[in-house]
UniProtKB/TrEMBL annotation:
This protein's UniProt keywords: Oxidoreductase
InterPro entries the record matches: SoxG, TrmE/GcvT-like
SUPFAM superfamilies referenced in this protein's UniProt entry, alphabetically: Folate-binding domain (SSF103025)
Organism: Amaricoccus macauensis
Protein name per Swiss-Prot or TrEMBL: Sarcosine oxidase subunit gamma
EC number: 1.5.3.1
Source organism superkingdom: Bacteria
Gene Ontology MF: a single term: sarcosine oxidase activity
Length: 167
């Protein structure tokens, strides 16, 4: 579902992807996958991305068609680790437009204007934990657990209407 109002912000629910929550002490032990080591940094290898959420935590995303290949890569890790597929747990919204920072400011306490393009962070929107990635200057992806998605979407839609009305 996509919605756009006069405020110039489009909200689109994105197609499902393969998501893996990876915990690992040494990212260099993952064959064939480049993991960033700075918290908030994101690496891309074709259509696969890895976002460093903590000193030993990454969120790996890939198209559903790459699921088997990603799982095979992770199966090659010889060091102690945890790799949990969380694909069905989360929904991602693309938020795009000139007022996207204003839209996100209605529920997120972070100064997102300072977030560099290509980076990401775990944060909150209202009371729900989310992962935000900044795709371009005026485009973010907001990933939220499915159980909170309707709450977050309702708040985004309300904020979108308020921005369009100039409130």
């Amino acid at each position: 579902m996509t919605s756009t109002l006069a405020a110039g912000v489009t909200i689109t629910e994105l197609a499902p992807t393969t998501r893996i929550a990876l915990r690992l002490a040494d990212p260099a032990t993952v064959p064939g996958l480049s993991l960033p080591t700075e918290v908030g940094a994101r690496s891309a290898d074709g259509s696969r991305t890895a976002l460093c959420l903590g000193p030993d935590e990454w969120l790996i995303e890939a198209p559903e068609a790459d699921r088997a290949a990603v799982l095979a890569t992770l199966a090659g890790i010889s060091a102690p680790h945890s790799a949990v597929e969380v694909s069905d747990r989360e929904i991602t919204y693309a938020l795009e437009g000139p007022a996207v920072l204003d839209l996100l400011a209605t529920g997120c306490p972070r100064d997102l204007a300072r977030m560099p393009v290509g980076s990401g962070a775990r944060t909150v929107f209202d009371t729900a934990q989310v992962v935000l990635t900044r795709e371009t200057d005026d485009r973010f992806h907001l990933t939220v657990w499915r159980s909170f998605a309707s709450h977050v979407r309702a708040l985004l839609d309300l904020a979108q209407r308020e921005l369009a009305a100039g409130l």
